[in-house]
Structure formats: structure tokens, C-alpha cells
Write a structure and sequence with these properties.
Length: 181
């Protein structure tokens, strides 16, 4: 099977803008959970992950190409209304086990999959900065996934309903960043 071509300027801008938006929302979501999570050992880890998402948002915002043909406001936005709705629904998860289950089974893997797919399409010739950003973000997400998995072993099992519902919503949305062109 032939290798797909690298992303165009507009496709790269949309991908970086969507990643910046999703990372900023994850910063808000995970940071917001810190205020209502009773387990102190979980709060500290959620706070650290929240701050990494904020940093990732900055990294992705910096990857939006500067071009007169692009309007930053039109590319740094939700990849789709379905993704925005999915993240809004995560805000009201009932307890720590459900929050960590959704984070570890839906959100982090969904974002990791999107970035790994993007890395496979990036050009080593003209996307060096994007590849460096992808390397940093992918490593952080892998570490965060491992951390969430460890945290979950110290908590009761989560209600499977929210995880299944949000996983289905993620599939219907075509992924957290939408499908690659």
C-alpha cells in the first residue's frame, strides 16, 4: 500500500488547531475534576496531567502555520461539534473511578491514536517541528495512560455505562481530532 501524502498547509493548520483546542479543553476538564475529587493521591496526579495538557495546547498553537491565507480563529477550534459535546459530557462524570476510566479508556487513548496517525503522515523533510511536538506529546500521553492505570488499581471499579457511552460517542465523532484526510 502506498504511503499517503503529507498533510497540506490547510490540513496541517486544522490538525494543529484542533489539537490545541482539545488539549486546552482537557486542561480545563481534568483541572476542574481536581476541585471535586476527594482522593488526595488522585488530585495531585490529575493536576499534573492538567498542566501538561495546557502545555500541549501551547505547543499545538505554535504549530499552526503563519500564513496570510489562514485565519487562526477558524482553525483553533473544536474538530467537530461531536467532540465538543463529548468533552462537555465528561465534565459531569459522577465519581473518581468513572473519571479515571474515561480518561484512561477513552480520552487519552483517543488523543494518542490521533497523534500517532498524524506522526505517520508527517513529512521528515518539511514537518520537523511538528514531529518534535508529536514526539513530546505522545511520550507524555503514554506516561499519563500508565499513571491513570496505576491510580485505577487503588479505587473501586467504575460504572461501565459512561465509558461505553463516551467510547461510542468518540467513534461516532471519528476520533478526538477527527479523521485524517
Amino acid at each position: 500500500m502506498p504511503t499517503p501524502p503529507p498533510l497540506t498547509l490547510h490540513e496541517l493548520a486544522a490538525r494543529a488547531g484542533g489539537a490545541a483546542w482539545v488539549s486546552a479543553r482537557l486542561f480545563e476538564l481534568v483541572g476542574g475534576w481536581c476541585t471535586t475529587t476527594p482522593e488526595a493521591h488522585v488530585v495531585g496526579r490529575l493536576a499534573a496531567q492538567s498542566h501538561r495538557h495546557a502545555w500541549h495546547a501551547e505547543l499545538w498553537s505554535a504549530r499552526i502555520p503563519e500564513a496570510t491565507i489562514l485565519d487562526r480563529a477558524t482553525v483553533e477550534r473544536a474538530p467537530s461539534a461531536e467532540v465538543a459535546d463529548l468533552l462537555d459530557r465528561c465534565r459531569d462524570l459522577p465519581g473518581t473511578p468513572e473519571r479515571l476510566a474515561v480518561l484512561g479508556e477513552v480520552l487519552l487513548p483517543g488523543l494518542l491514536d490521533a497523534h500517532v496517525a498524524h506522526r505517520a503522515r508527517a513529512s521528515t523533510v518539511c514537518d520537523g517541528a511538528t514531529l518534535r511536538t508529536l514526539g513530546l506529546v505522545v511520550a507524555d500521553l503514554e506516561g499519563d495512560l500508565s499513571e491513570v492505570s496505576t491510580l485505577r488499581t487503588r479505587l473501586p471499579d467504575a460504572d461501565a455505562g459512561p465509558v461505553a457511552d463516551l467510547r461510542a460517542a468518540l467513534g461516532a465523532a471519528g476520533g478526538l481530532l477527527g479523521p485524517l484526510p
